[in-house]
Amino acid sequence: MGFLLHWPWPEIDLDDVLAGAVAVRVDVTENKVEAPEHRHRKGQLVFALGGGVTCRVPSGLWMVPPHCAVWVPGGMRHSNIATANARIFFVFIEPTADLPDRCCTFSISPLLRELIVELADHLRQDEGREKLFIEVLLGELPRMPVQQLHLPISSEPRLRRIAAALSDDPADRSTMAEWAERVALSESSLARLVSKETGLTFGRWRQQLHLIVALRELSAGASVQQVSADLGYESVTAFITMFKKALGKPPARYLSDIAGAAPQTRHPFA
Which domains does the chain have, with CATH numbers? Predict the structure, then answer.
């Protein structure tokens, strides 16, 4: 079952729609819009065919570059931030599906892309074909590879304050000592707090935010040079080196490979 809507969409409760999966296509024309925080009984797959989406959940930020999707389990509070001219698909899935009970980012194979597009755009007049497509989608989705594209954020207020400040100004190159002073902690205390709450060092945590911002902006059409400058890197080479070290490939290659990704292994939560 599918719907074609424009952002912001009208009042419609998809939790009440009786189907194993309901696909919704949303076209975004505004500049960087954010849906208010909300939750669904059904799980939600957030898939970007063009542009980028960032999902906020209580435990962190999850990036949805093109040809990837973030899974948000049913009942979890979340909001979605879309870049301008994004082409987004939401797939609402019943809780009985064989999917994780926590957020993750999936690569989406060409087969699943076409299934999602078809469900959203064309199948409401062919109930038997729609049912078959839903069965294939629910069988294939748990097999998709997982991408590590999230920023862990705890409920700890000082870390949330730092994360919010860095999200607003990712080019801020303040040292950990300077951040510690702003939140009334010693440098060693802040280091322990970040490690305890996120499992990362402060430098790696900030770098992960840079990767999320970079992928969002690159997905929206920004150049590597522009993103490098916006993140405060001294040179494009320094930015590309950071990106390649973190994700194994330079930006253009990484996005290209995600677009052509095919499933190789089951995800670790299946």
Answer: 2-147 (2.60.120.280), 154-258 (1.10.10.60)
